[in-house]
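Final report, closing paragraph on structural work. Over the funding period we assembled a curated collection of sequence-structure pairs, and we close with a single example.
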Amino acid sequence: MSVKVGPFLRKIGGYIAATAALILLWALASWALHSPALPMPAAAFKQFFAQFTAMLPHAAISLWRIAAAMLAGTALALPLGLWIGRSKKADVFFAPLLYLLYPIPKVVFLPVLMVLLGLGDAPKIVLIGTVIFFQTIVTARDSAKSIAPASIMSVRSLGARPLQIAIDVVLPASLPDLFTSLRINTGTAIAILFLTESIAGTSGLGYYIVNAWGMIDYPSMFAGIIAMALMGVVLYELINLLESRLLRWKKA
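Its predicted structure, as stored:
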């Protein structure tokens, strides 16, 4: 795998500049508030490196829960959303159904999932996966529906079958919107992950952060927040890498 040095160095430089700006703002806020609840960045980063080994298992289980939920939610929603977007008959029934279900905050079902599935990984993955499912299916449906009829007709006139049209036209045309949805889903998934791990469970970065907060160990709490932010960066960059591989034609 080849990486162009120029864009790579610009990206690293951007991360360094953004991190420096955030640390500066954080330090100014900490100095202005002068509260133990907002420690100086130096104290938090010192605790981050001191607790790095202890946080690794929590980061690994959080990453597993997000990856499993995003894969399952996307894999189920993507083909269904594309189908609804390209089928007028399906859209008549499923569009109103989505409009009814999508606005419901899915986190309200966490107590029910905990009763049905226990306190392990299952309720967290199912809840995050459900949120991802609805966000992805709406995007996929809207993206597929917006494809110009002329694009479909041109390949249909060449004898393409419905499955070929779906693979060669509908899916490629929808991918840019779907990658945008994936990036939005990542932020949402991390937020739901924190909520589920802080309410139910004894593992994960959400549990680590809330546990440190309960012990009034604010530097450790912010160390956990730093770890969660880094996990988000890793996920975003993986999505960017996948997008650059699958959508080479956008750069042409």
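Residues 137 and 163 are 19 Å apart (CA to CA). The chain has ten helices and no strands. We thank the funder for supporting this effort.
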